[in-house]
Amino acid sequence: MAGLVVLGLIVLAALYLTLEPLRRGQVADPDAAQRDDLMAERDRLYMELADPAAGDRRPDLERRAARTLRALDALPPAPGRGGARRLALIGTVAALLVTAIAAFTVVPRWQLASLDTGEAANVQAVLDLPQLRATAERTKTNTDYLAWGKAAFDSGTYDQALTAYGNALKLDPRQPVALRRLGILLLTRGEQTGQEISEQDATQAALLVQTAAQLAPSDPESQLLLGYTLARFGQSRDALDALERYRTLSPSGREADELITALRTRLQQSDPALTVYAANCASCHGPAGGGGIGPNLRVSTLTRAAMATIIRQGKGAMPAYPQLSGRDLTLLLTLLEDWQKAGQ
Description:
The chain is an all-alpha fold. Helix content is 75%, strand content 0%. Helix 12 (220-232) packs antiparallel against helix 13. Residues 268-344 form the Cytochrome c domain.
């Protein structure tokens, strides 16, 4: 809406620049009387000079005609419609320039301001992509390749992202962003092209993502893409651990919610420890131990013995669970220890 308002104001300004000179019309000529007299004298002298009977009077007529013409030339130009038309033409050109500039600057910025942060970033990436690509192809520097890759990745132009990140890694093979994004693009290329990826290529792609996670373990995107990659290879427990780390690093991130739910369901069906946890602990500590009403169990530093005591006897707001069988308690403690190790 704001963009339309700005565009409307620009159109009104353009109309004003175009029509105002025409509205002024004919401007008064302060030398009109003298100009008319001289032009009438000029025309009369021309008629007499054209008469064959002028005879001896011709030299005098020619001198008088020359004086009349010099007097006309000495007068300032008469204002008229031609000036208004020229001004209108200039105004039209100026209006077109203002409108064109606004179309590529002011209006897009207002339109971006009306979008949420993510949508605005994607639109801006599309707008910036041609220039960033041209710059990277000209300079061939790592910084420009990464900027081009980011814009291509964010705008969904994945073929360009593959090229940009591939070139960046040739210059420096230890770049987490380029590694993980190139890896996930290669891994999902089949979904984009409809061609099945080979096992060798899939393994290579997974290695890129895992290397990126090792280089930048505290980066949310590293854990997010690692989780997707591990899930694709059927490593559900490790995938869930990576995605839970992602949620811990980026509490507002919602990209993995559906996959986390699917992995939890799958694991609870096949993992008796998760079944025990879901029945007794998930309501307070979160479905995967990430915290809720109760603390985050994945960052706990309690020993196995201390955890067993708290589970059996309770502590503070946490109730006791004396009814747990020995088998269920052992499964639960092993699960919690695994989470602690994964969170370290």
